[in-house]
Amino acid sequence: MNILIYAVLILALFFVLVMAVDCNRFVIKEYKCRSSKMRKDALIVLLSDLHGKSFGKNNEKLIRAIDELHPDMILIAGDMYTSMRGSDTKTAEHLVTELASRYPIYYGNGNHEQKTRIFPEEYGSMYEDYSEKLREAGVRQLVNEKSSLLDYHMDIYGSEIERSYYGKFKRVTMEPSYLEKTLGKPDRERFSILIAHNPDYFESYAAWGADLVVAGHVHGGLMNLPVLGGVLSPALRLFPKYDGGEFTEGESTMILSRGLGTHTLPIRIFNPGELVVIRLQPSGEQQA
Predict the structure, then answer these.
(1) Is residue 53 within 8 Å of 26, Cβ to Cβ?
(2) pLDDT per residue over 233-271, tens digit each?
(3) pTM of the model
(4) Of the residues 15, 31, 103, 185, which has the fewest C-beta atoms closer than 10 A?
(5) What's residue 1's pLDDT?
(6) Cα distance between residue 227 and residue 219, in whole Å
(7) Cβ distance 77 to 110 under 8 Å?
(8) Do the Cβ atoms of 213 and 245 come closer than 8 Å?
(9) What is the distance between the alpha carbons of residues 45 and 279, in angstroms, rounded to a whole number?
(10) What are phi and psi of 88, to 5 degrees?
(11) What are phi and psi of 111, to 5 degrees?
């Protein structure tokens, strides 16, 4: 019996140590995407789910890693801060505005930014103050709108879906016309990137016409197990289909970041934070 107790304690200590390490480090994950719709190469850094985390003083480690990559642009897939009463956005604000002084940034809201935006009676001016700082820094915050990059022959859309799509346990069906109503129709001749925080609706994003979807939200499923993958999604579903990595649906690709920080359940086991790099390249006959 004593041996069993010792074994359990040692195992528990091991997981605590792994969690302490993984919650305080990040790795760089690279992906490549080719399309005949693109006119020139683009190196993109994808950030998501920082939740106010800082890697070093003022996120100096994260900023240094991004500077070493020399990206053409940065996409943010939401939840850079946490919607909690009494919390602030200063860490996220400093990181985003500092990076905006170096690189173009296109920012799609996550459910935490959305929550503070639509419930000012609970969160006061948190969202408006944060967004104003971002606007002053030149960040393009895309709330169901797009930004066109003519040099790349590319459109970047930011989708903020309704809060009902973030419910626990039960997955709400997304109507086929929903994205067209909120975003309009994508130009099928141009390369369309959709910043969509919640990956659960990848099939709908692909059917809408996204060539590339970038997402976050799932935090890698908290704990990453061999073969089984991520363990638990924010919707409290076990072993989610989309936990992190690259997925395809027809002609559409989704790059799902495992995020950088944590909230509510401060757990990362065999699941360090991710700084995602996407290399877009033209292929085949390019569009005129």
Answers:
(1) no
(2) 999 899 999 999 999 999 999 999 999 999 888 899 999
(3) 0.94
(4) 185
(5) 65
(6) 17
(7) yes
(8) no
(9) 9
(10) -135, 175
(11) -70, -25
For residues 94 and 85, give the distance between their C-alpha atoms in angstroms, rounded to a whole number: 20
Q: Quick one: which H or E segment has residue 69?
A: helix 60-69
Distance CA 239, CA 220 (A): 10
- Span 82-139, pLDDT tens digits: 999 878 899 999 999 999 999 999 999 999 999 999 999 999 999 999 999 999 999 9
Contact 193, 154 (CB under 8 A): yes
- Residue 36 in this model has a pLDDT that exceeds 80: yes
Single-letter amino acid code for the residue at 44: I
Cα separation of 201 and 227, whole Å? Answer: 23
Residues 141 and 107 sit within 8 Å (Cβ to Cβ)? yes
How far is it, in rounded angstroms, from Cα 208 to Cα 183?
10
Q: How many CB atoms lie within 10 A of CB 148?
A: 11
pLDDT of 287 over the 60 cut: no
Q: How many residues does the chain have?
A: 288
Contacts 24+ apart (CB under 8 A), 31-34: 31/246, 31/255, 31/276, 31/277, 31/278, 31/279, 32/278, 32/279, 32/281, 33/212, 33/253, 33/255, 33/278, 33/279, 33/280, 33/281, 34/280, 34/281, 34/282, 34/283
105 phi and psi angles, rounded to 5 deg: -125, 130
Which residue's structure tokens are 């939740």? 51
Instruction: Yes or no: say if 263 and 82 are a contact pair by the CB < 8 Å rule.
Output: yes
